[in-house]
Amino acid sequence: MILAAIDVGLKRIGTAISLDGKTALPQNPILRKNRKQAARDTSAFLEEWRVERLIVGLPKGGSSEEEMERRIRHFVGLLNFSGEIEFIDESGSSLEAAERMKGVVKQRKDGRLDSIAAQLILERYLFRKSLA
What gap in Å lies between CA 66 and CA 59, rounded to an integer? Predict the structure, then answer.
């Protein structure tokens, strides 16, 4: 089963895939100009990779948790995707991604950090499934 994860942000959407159910690989981020364009580009990404299950990170904790969850669920509802969708806690994924990239790449706003965060979300999901 081909899986993908997305880390939905207001400016960029990080993406990652797993072709074997064991390894998560970051992909090019989707730059977000507006909601419709981002949903169209994300849908195209999912179709291109023939994704069967989409893992979506949701922020848990923090003062804006409810608002961000509402926005993310709304965005996912705009996707043209008929596969399975699972939401998991993404807490700390962006900080962990920044830590993982330290010394490798300067923290630029090109979205690579967002895709590393998506990779971490997918790795967490795969690890949790391997324990079940």
Answer: 9
Residue with token string 């705009």: 78
Q: Identify each DSSP E strand in the chain by its residue range.
A: 3-8, 12-18, 25-31, 53-58, 84-89
pTM of the predicted protein model: 0.86
Q: Residue 114's domain is classified under what CATH number?
A: 3.30.420.140
- Is 77 in contact with 37 (CB distance < 8 Å)? no
Q: What is the pLDDT of residues 16-57, one digit of tens each?
A: 999 999 999 999 999 999 999 999 999 999 999 999 999 999
| Domain count for the chain | 1
Tell the burial category of 42 from Cβ atoms under 10 Å away from its Cβ (0-12, 13-18, 19+): buried
Is 21:2 a contact under the CB 8 Å cutoff?
no
